[in-house]
Known about the structure:
alpha/beta; Rossmann fold; 2 domains; 19 helices
Amino acid sequence: MEHLKEYAKEVEKLFNSGKLFDKPEPLKGIRVLEVCYVVLGPAAMDYLAEFGAEVIKFEGQRGDQMRFVTPYAFFWKNVSPGMEEQNHNKYWVGMHLGNPKAKELFLEMVKKADIVADNLTPGRMAAWGLSYQELSKINPRIIQLHVSGYGSWGPWTGRTSYDAVAQSMGGLSAITGFKERGPIKSGVWIADWITAIMCAVAIIIALNYRERTGKGQFIDYMQAGNVIRLLDWTWLYTYLTGQDRPRSGNRDLAICPSDLFDCQDGWIALAAFAEEEFKGLCTAMNRMDLFQQYADPTVRLREENAVVILRAIDEWTRTKKVAEVEALGQEYGFAASRVITTREAYYSPHYRKRGAIQEFDDELYGKMVEACYPPRMSETPSRLKWAQRPLGFDNHYVLTTLCGLSKNEIEQLEAEGVIFKWNPAVPSVCPPPDWDGKSGLKLF
Length: 444
């Protein structure tokens, strides 16, 4: 273990999470026009923004639906936690693209943009005259992403989808849960977040293609299809056997042992697949008979053998405390970690040390502590610069810098209802109650 400690010290120096803002942003200079609502699209653009892309988010009069989606009706300084975590480092414009004048302004921005992204109903952008064919005439290098539940063509196109629906239609819910109970959906919006990551990856791929050819392209992403791709060996198994994958609770059907086990004072996640790992576990349990009989990992995977092994481990862990099993895992070389709460994860010194959870001072909201995009990169790290913003907060800045409009022209557009700001009667689209009227504005 000593060599690992030395290696960790050297790597920590290389990454130096205390100097995030001294390092370059890899996507600086990439401009994104975001017409996205409700996690799926906004989260994809959030990933790009955290690596330095200039993301300009357009909202209609009511704003992103996530401004009103919040656990237990909890709001903090008018902010919904459901809105904040997918909307860092963005610029905010209140503008409905169905308005002809708003469309003209948007097309002017397309000329100077790299990416247009939406997760509206398929065909909505086209109905406004903003299809990929139209946008590429104005800017042949433009990359357009459309992401929706079922994509822009196929028998299910146009059906409404949310995360829970996507988990179900992608086959995830059916295989999640215990055999004797019904299907279970993930406790988080996993279909949204994983699809968002892959949308960001698709955009990076398209940028690479454009770098080599000078050509943009249209990306059509299906959320439910992305869930299908997550299900590891399930689809090949079903194809080859004709059988559905059963629900198996916390047990891994392809690795034995790998499960959650009950201890005297909590739960432990335990896995020992490789022969040496399993030998270590059996040694710790004083059950070398199990190793002698089931040393071969594939032998352990047979149903009748797996049942015996998992029952023996369950009986053993119930006699131990969590910390004891963790210590034995360290000593004998098998994986064993307590099942921690979200609060414990949030305050974990490991995540703070690595910069996976970052603290930053926001000009509107003060001190913020949030999770950021997880890859740690030595030369071009992601970073959180500011939080979500009120509806239309950056109208003046965006229209001045991108469209060259004067203050009088912008005020005229506001008077005509082409652009708009927050409605004081709707707190969740407004600045915090103690806002001084200028903090956080990029141009005042």
